[in-house]
Amino acid sequence: MKSFISKKDILIIVASLGIGCILLITFLLLPTKDNASVIVTLDGQVIKTMSLYSNTTYTCQNNENYNIIVVNNGIVNVKEASCKNQICVHHFPISKNGETIVCLPNKLVVSIKNENGKQPDIVI
Amino acid sequence: MCRKMSSKSNSKIILNGGKALKRLIALLSILIILFSLCGCTSNQKDTSNTSDTSEEIDFQLRQNYYTDIFDTIFTFLAYTDTQSEFDELSEDVHSFLLEYHKLYDVFNKYDGFNNLRTINENAGIQPVEVDQKIIDLLLFCRDMTEKTKGTVDVTYGRIMSLWHTFIKLANDEENPIVSMPNDIDIQKSLKCNGWDKIVIDDEKNTVFIKDSMVLLDVGAIAKGYAVQKAAEYIKAKNIPYAVINMGGNVTTIGGRGNDKDDWVVGIADPENYENEKYMMTIGVKDKSVVTSGDYERYYIADDNRYCHIIDLSTGYPANTVRGVTVVADDSGFADALSTALFVMPVEEGQKLVESIDNVEAIWILQKNKTVMSSGFKQYVLE
Q1: Cβ contact B67–A35 (<8 Å)
Q2: For a disulfide at B331, which of B196, B288, B305, B338, Cβ 3.0-4.6 Å?
């Protein structure tokens, strides 16, 4: 008996749906692009935003004041600075959401923003 | 972003008239359905133009930091559609708080208007006309003295100023001097206090300190009070999700990016404060969180820690606990209460918290032992 849809048709339909679903699930399970960024503010103005995963050295120069910020392998630190107390240079390297390095004399704040996960937005 | 699906090879399907065509159509329709599902799950970025800017609309969390307000670091977080909208909002909130900072400043004077320093300078001399914001703050402070049973009292400026000086000397970057004020000075300064000496005229908008030895120090309340006003300001602008952190005075508006998720606040580990280590996290939405601790402004002499929060019954810095965190609706109240709980014996503090609705607290004792109020657990994440 000739039917509109034969067994072979059903096989193809199921097969392609199956492959499609596998691809879809794989796509959904892939980690979404990590939105982590390094934000540099100077005297209350955001002057630079970089991806936490970029490997860059950024020098913030403000008249005679400067801070050299290094982003490397998801870790950020201040390599060198013009300030007298050098607190920013001695600060531990930051890598997690909400962590900051502050250079008060130069009015500079380097922070990390990463919306993924349960890391605190602030620590008090 | 949707990745290209590999095209299905059609070479296996033998083109054989109608049946093959049917199969092809079925296959194509399935692929189309899957592609559209794929599209629905990807993050759509709308780059349509709005008004005069062709800025990408991307509702996300943005942040900014200021170092010129209330002698601390002011962090502002908010979800906005564009960076320029955030920049404008951020500067707006900053200006708003800067005005409060100047009015409540006891150290500096500013051209053109009187502030708290002016009031202190005229103690024993004359009433000083001030902005309504100062009147409102002081009335709030007076109420807080009552609510905390005298533990928090901004009229004790003289003893607080004495300790501030010694803490500052000990922490001087160039030439630190570690020493103790002598007990006679402490007891003398301690006596200079009292709301009975403060005349607040809500109609003429004047404040008069009748006794020349009495000083006002609003440090325990001003930050929280100003932050509360800023929160109301932001809400009035219909900003749905934002956070203000004024050096430990946190207020949250809405949730983290939506009406469901909590903002995550870490409670600092007093033993490890310099490394920004936290001992637990709490989740809050539309709440204020304030911490009072002994690990920010202090100095150590003879193995004893002297922090900036003074026990007004002894004249010496409190050292009952290492820190207290309060969760409440009003930021000013949370600020005053966290200071009070830091000073009071823990049992007394617990009774006080249990007697007030919608307030919870956690006390961090020596060696990071903790005590929580009955409802605090609901906030704890880990």
Answers
A1: no
A2: B288
**Chain B residues touching A60 at Cβ < 8 A:** none
**Inter-chain touch A24–B37, beta carbons under 8 Å:** yes
Burial class (CB in 10 A: 0-12, 13-18, 19+), A1: exposed
Please give the full DSSP string across A44-67, using - where no structure is assigned. Answer: TEEEEEEETTS-EEEEEEETTEEE
Contacts of residue A54, Cβ cutoff 8 Å, sequence gap at least 6: A71
pLDDT tens, B43-73?
A: 444 444 344 456 788 999 999 999 999 999 9
* Closest CA in chain A for residue B2: A27
Q: Which residue of A has its CA nearest to B267?
A: A124
Q: How far apart (Å, rounded) are the C-alpha atoms in residues A45 and B19?
A: 66
Contact B30 A100 (CB under 8 A): no
Taking contacts as CB-CB distances below 8 angstroms, the residues of chain B near A95 are none
> Residues near B326 by Cβ (< 8 Å), separated by ≥ 6?
B289, B290, B291, B334, B337, B338, B341, B359, B360, B361
Between chain A and chain B, the number of residue pairs with CB atoms below 8 A apart is 123
| Placement of tokens 């003289």 in the chain | B158
pLDDT tens per residue, range B267-315: 999 988 877 789 999 999 999 999 999 988 899 999 999 999 999 999 9
**Tens digits of pLDDT across chain B (382 residues):** 444 444 444 444 444 556 777 777 767 777 777 666 655 554 444 444 344 456 788 999 999 999 999 999 999 999 999 999 999 999 999 999 999 999 999 999 999 999 999 999 999 999 999 999 999 999 999 999 999 999 999 999 999 999 999 999 999 988 999 999 999 999 999 999 999 999 999 999 999 999 999 999 999 999 999 999 999 999 999 999 999 999 999 999 999 999 999 999 999 999 888 777 899 999 999 999 999 999 888 999 999 999 999 999 999 999 999 999 999 999 999 999 999 999 999 999 999 999 999 999 999 999 889 999 999 999 999 6
Q: Is B66 on the interface with A (CB under 8 A)?
A: yes
B249: closest chain A residue by CA: A124
- For residue B277, CA distances in Å to A119, B35, B189, B247, B282 come to 11, 45, 37, 16, 14
- Contacting residues for B252 by C-beta, under 8 A, at least 6 apart: B242, B243, B263, B284, B285, B286, B287, B288, B289
CA angle, residues B104, A104, A81, in degrees to nearest 5: 170
CB contact under 8 A, B289 and A124: yes
- Inter-chain CB proximity A113 and B61 less than 8 Å: yes
Residues of A in contact with B30 (CB under 8 A): 13, 16-17, 20
